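Regression test case RT-17, inverse folding.

Input:
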């Protein structure tokens, strides 16, 4: 039996507030895993888990957001004995999933979900008034702490490294000036400061887009989580196991691409010089990048920047995590 497009009983309920992107493509990447157990390391509202269950796989789901429990309980009732939910971070998925027996595949959907963006009290969106929070786990340091406490240079470096914001120094200057008058505590306050700093052209994305992205990544340690999660999947999966990763911007995709194929894109070797040792392949074959088609973009505009990459685990032993080879941005002065 192979997994295909989920049939009606496994379709996403209409009241679930998040539409998973590249769903058919993710299921296709894991098509050999019917009857085996798959880890959904970023459960969210359960879209991937539901599709995988409907297609014949058993699922162990992981999420650090306590508000997703209601969706997990629903799936546990619909698929008794085939679905388990564990609270935690996907960076530790090998530890969290080991008690459930052999794992055949892992799927990761990196980034913030639609339901988090749409909950103004979570503070992820520059389009909705709410506290400047952005904590996925709802614990620890929030975005307001960074905005109001980081020195100007450190804040600028953070916005540039994590948000690829070319006007980071001007934005940081305006933020520091604004917070000297009063702390910046809400999403719309920060959005207004950024818009004042760099302006807004009709038809362009909101000027605060990259600033909010950078703060969210920093607050939740998303790049560290991603790297640790990728290598955790490498440790967890045996030969033939499948890892599928959906990312949403170029920095994440670069990390995933280099993880799957660290030697690709390196300098060509000359037969007249000593040969550079090529690392044994831990993933082979590795898929080409898969992006959403026009029909999906019409249904869900938030899918526009998503990219799916997947690979099949070889018998080579797992590596130790490496950051410098994966293109992980470094923020100077923000620690």
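Golden output:
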């Amino acid at each position: 039996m192979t997994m295909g497009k989920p049939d009606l009983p496994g379709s996403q309920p209409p009241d679930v507030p998040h539409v998973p992107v590249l769903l058919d493509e993710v299921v296709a990447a894991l098509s050999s895993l019917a009857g085996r157990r798959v880890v959904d390391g970023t459960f969210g509202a359960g879209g991937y888990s539901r599709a995988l269950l409907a297609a014949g796989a058993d699922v162990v789901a992981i999420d650090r957001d306590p508000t997703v429990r209601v969706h997990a309980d629903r799936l546990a009732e619909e698929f008794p004995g085939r679905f388990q939910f564990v609270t935690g971070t996907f960076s530790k998925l090998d530890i969290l999933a080991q008690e459930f027996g052999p794992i055949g595949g892992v799927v990761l959907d990196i980034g913030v979900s639609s339901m988090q963006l749409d909950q103004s009290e979570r503070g992820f969106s520059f389009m909705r008034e709410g506290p400047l929070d952005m904590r996925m786990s709802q614990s620890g340091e929030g975005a307001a702490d960074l905005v109001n406490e980081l020195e100007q240079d450190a804040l600028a470096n953070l916005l540039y490294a994590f948000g690829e914001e070319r006007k980071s120094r001007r934005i940081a200057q305006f933020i520091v000036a604004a917070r000297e008058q009063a702390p910046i505590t809400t999403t719309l306050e920060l959005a207004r400061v950024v818009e004042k700093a760099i302006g807004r052209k009709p038809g362009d994305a909101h000027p605060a887009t990259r600033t909010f992205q950078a703060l969210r990544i920093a607050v939740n340690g998303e790049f560290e989580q991603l790297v640790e999660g990728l290598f955790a999947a490498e440790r967890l999966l045996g030969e033939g196991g499948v890892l599928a990763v959906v990312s949403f911007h170029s920095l994440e995709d670069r990390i995933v691409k280099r993880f799957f194929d660290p030697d690709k894109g390196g300098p060509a070797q000359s037969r007249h010089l000593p040969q550079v040792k090529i690392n044994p392949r831990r993933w082979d074959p590795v898929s080409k990048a898969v992006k959403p088609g026009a029909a999906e973009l019409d249904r869900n505009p938030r899918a526009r920047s998503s990219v799916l990459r997947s690979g099949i685990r070889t018998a080579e032993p797992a590596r130790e995590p490496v950051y410098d080879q994966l293109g992980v941005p470094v923020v100077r002065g923000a620690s």
